[in-house]
Recover the amino acids of this structure.
């Protein structure tokens, strides 16, 4: 399991494939404790809580589907 560890001595944050609660810092040799990281994610653009992103997503997909929309008689 990939976890983030923060050193109590030098404050360096690093990742380790380990499930242990404590690890050894590879930078200074001090004690590193497992922390909860923020994670990586992105909003898909269809979330109404972020109207600018939602509008951008809709415009991009409308433009990509313009030929299909014309065939169906849907105004673009």
């Amino acid at each position: 399991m990939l976890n983030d560890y923060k050193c109590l001595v030098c404050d360096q944050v690093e990742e380790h494939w380990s499930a242990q609660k404590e690890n050894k810092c590879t930078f200074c040799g001090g004690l590193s404790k497992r922390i909860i990281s923020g994670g990586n994610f992105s909003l898909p653009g269809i979330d109404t809580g972020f109207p600018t992103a939602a509008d951008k997503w809709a415009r991009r997909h409308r433009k990509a589907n313009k030929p299909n929309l014309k065939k169906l008689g849907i105004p673009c």
In short: The first strand starts at residue 2 and ends at 7. The two ends are 48 Å apart (CA to CA). The CA atoms of residues 45 and 55 lie 8 Å apart.
